[in-house]
Specification:
Length: about 60
Amino acid sequence: MLFMILLIVPLLGTLWFLNFTMFLKNLKNGKSTHNQNLLGAVLTFIFIAALMICLVGTY
């Protein structure tokens, strides 16, 4: 459980942030943002699931 809290959750947060910045760059340049939308949804789902597992594991 400690592995998940200290490595997986921050890694997912970093990937989510990088995806968000790429989304904003593509949006500003008028390029397609479909890939960033899909990846953002998947990363958000995995991030929330990992946080929920960590919270359940603390009890």
